[in-house]
């Protein structure tokens, strides 16, 4: 019966229930409501999380509405992660560095912006792939918004070297310059094979390989260029096993899927909002079930 599914998706709501949500355009594909409502239910937090389709011209109105309604906070997704910053009262330094906000916390009348994407990715890489980052050599494929957040978080873990490789070299150079001096180096796509040969971790932050382009390999990477035992990581989670990860596994690499970044960005948001540890296992189970896994 569909009644039971509805009961399961929403904790019991009363006059103390705190509202959270995610804004984006489009938004109906989002798995955040399923994941976050499961987290609230699992921990007994009296809160509910919904998805709001908000267009760019209504961001100011949404922020004002969130203050007026006393929302607990909200997540921000594509295409609003940078534009929302203009309507917040305070931006955390990690979000400032990443140039994007994906999590907003309301404290009294103030809206405070954080970025949990990069830190979420790094926590997932360490906890799920068991990857040591300190002292290791890392290759990052791509130099867009996702790469920026991840690179700022990676740089704080003291890797021995980070190479940024991008189709458009100038963007890789610009991103390397925005990081703390000496943290990362821009490398041309022609030298990808060489940097992969001594990399401990190779991370795809581009959309190459994402459904429906599942045959695509980011920058034409060949997983046999990597050392067996190195970690191949992809932020794409649709499909869960990208061609890059499948080929890396065959080449004897350890693999780490993009689902982890999504789950842990939500885990950090939950922790900012509630001050409690996130029920990561239950959150993952909810997302996998929603993805049909
Ligand atoms: P996001 O915020 O998701 O990172 P973005 O800022 O548009 O999105 O950046 C997309 C990144 O993926 C860029 O590094 C882009 O390379 P260019 O800077 O050369 O455009 C990269 N990218 C997207 N599709 C790609 C593909 N098919 N092959 C290689 N790189 C790709």
Helices, strands, pairings?
Elements: H1 2-9, E1 18-24, H2 32-43, E2 47-53, H3 59-69, E3 73-76, E4 90-91, H4 93-98, E5 103-107, E6 110-114, H5 117-128, E7 137-141, H6 145-155, E8 161-165, H7 169-178, E9 185-187, H8 192-197, E10 201-204, E11 231-234, H9 243-250, E12 254-256, H10 259-274, H11 280-290
Parallel strand pairs: 1-2, 1-3, 4-6, 7-8, 7-10, 8-9, 10-11, 11-12
Antiparallel strand pairs: 3-5, 5-6
Structure, described:
The protein folds into 2 domains: 3-115 and 261-290, Leucine Dehydrogenase, chain A, domain 1 (Rossmann fold, 3-Layer(aba) Sandwich); 118-257, NAD(P)-binding Rossmann-like Domain (Rossmann fold, 3-Layer(aba) Sandwich). It is 38% helix and 18% strand. The chain has 11 helices and 12 strands. It has helices at residues 2-9, 32-43, 59-69, 93-98, 117-128, 145-155, 169-178, 192-197, 243-250, 259-274, 280-290; strands spanning 18-24, 47-53, 73-76, 90-91, 103-107, 110-114, 137-141, 161-165, 185-187, 201-204, 231-234, 254-256. The strands form 2 sheets. It has a 6-stranded mixed β-sheet, sandwiched between helices. A 6-stranded parallel β-sheet has the order 9-8-7-10-11-12, sandwiched between helices. Helix 9 (243-250) links the parallel strand 11 (231-234) and strand 12 (254-256). Bound molecules: 2'-monophosphoadenosine-5'-diphosphate. 2'-monophosphoadenosine-5'-diphosphate binds at residues 142-147, 166-168, 171, 205-208, 216, 218-219.
């Amino acid at each position: 019966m569909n009644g039971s599914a509805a009961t399961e998706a929403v904790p019991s709501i009363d006059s103390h229930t705190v509202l959270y949500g995610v804004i984006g355009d489009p938004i109906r594909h989002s798995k955040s409501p399923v994941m976050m409502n499961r987290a609230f239910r699992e921990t007994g937090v009296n809160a509910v999380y919904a998805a709001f389709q908000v267009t760019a011209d209504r961001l100011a109105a949404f922020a004002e509405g969130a203050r007026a309604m006393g929302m607990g906070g909200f997540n921000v997704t594509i295409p609003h992660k940078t534009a929302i910053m203009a309507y917040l009262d305070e931006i955390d330094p990690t979000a400032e560095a990443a140039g994007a906000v994906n999590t907003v916390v309301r404290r009294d009348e103030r809206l405070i912006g954080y970025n949990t994407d990069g830190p979420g990715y790094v926590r997932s890489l360490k906890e799920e792939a068991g990857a040591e980052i300190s002292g290791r050599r890392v290759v990052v494929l791509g130099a867009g918004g996702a790469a920026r957040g991840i690179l700022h978080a990676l740089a704080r873990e003291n890797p021995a070297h980070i190479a940024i490789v991008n189709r458009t070299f100038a963007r890789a150079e610009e991103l390397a310059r925005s990081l703390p001096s000496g943290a990362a180096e821009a490398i041309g796509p022609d030298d990808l094979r060489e940097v992969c040969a001594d990399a401990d971790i190779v991370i795809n932050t581009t959309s190459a390989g994402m459904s429906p382009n599942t045959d695509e390999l980011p920058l034409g990477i060949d997983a046999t260029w990597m050392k067996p035992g190195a970690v191949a990581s992809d932020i794409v989670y649709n499909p869960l096993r990208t061609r890059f990860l499948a080929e890396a596994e065959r080449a004897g690499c350890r693999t780490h899927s993009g689902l982890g970044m999504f789950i842990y960005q939500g885990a950090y948001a939950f922790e900012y909002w509630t001050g409690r540890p996130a029920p990561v296992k239950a959150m993952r189970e909810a997302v996998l079930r929603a993805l049909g896994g």
